[in-house]
Amino acid sequence: MSQPTQTNSDDSVQCSASECWGALQKLRSHCPLIQCITNYVSMDIMANTLLAIGASPAMAHAEEEVEEFVALASAVLINIGTLSAPWIKSMHKAASKAQELGKVWVLDPVGAGATEIRTKLATDLVLSHKPTVIRGNPSEIMALAEGICKEVNLQRSDGAQKGVDSSESSDNALAPAKALATECGCVVVVTGEHDYVTDGLRVIVVSNGDAILKVITAAGCALTATLAAFVSLVDPNDITQVMKSSAFALSVFGIAAELAVKQPTVKGPGSARMHMLDAYGSINMETLQEMAKFS
After folding, report:
1. What is the model's pTM?
2. Which residues are in coiled coils (predicted)?
């Protein structure tokens, strides 16, 4: 495994296993309602993941009710994986209402950079409605940064983007992620071999997870839902707490994958997904002290 990109100690936020445990306990006790405007592929795993970690899912995207659900929800997640004209309207209405009410909302710009409509929608949502957190794979974050930031350092690999999958490393996307966070005044999370959380200046590195996640359909979508649940419990204007909560979500999700693949009955992605759902409930303080990897 490669080493994560190093950051100066002055631009980092310190996270601990005990803080992560406190955040997980708070989530389990509060059971926040997370409104998910997401794609058909991810609805099942996203809803089950939210329930397994202790949150409550609502898969409500109809334009006629979307704003009412925003008022009820603890946080709103917008995932652009499935696009149509009515869904685009719903996404804008939900993001606008969340911004109006001062609620946490998280953007997952699925496939940004792959097609014009995806890139434009993700860019419009960011510029018009100011998300609390943007969580994407390296290719998605680099595409958004390229379209939004005036000056950004893109070090692309030779591989072309593969639909909604990334052809870039998270290390290559760190500088664009920092530029995007600075330009938009939000927290940006780029996930890959190492996960980076940044507000444009400071960086948290999370190194939990397992390669099996690459072949579990909509694992990234479920991760974003986990992140939305953790961040829903903090003040969206407290950037440090948003960063920490994002890092805690990344670690808990990654640890669940690590625990799942240790089960003797895991033979591949199908059984790993099932055991991940079981693993969330078994994570305790001792688990986090032993396995959480923040730097």
Report:
1. 0.93
2. none
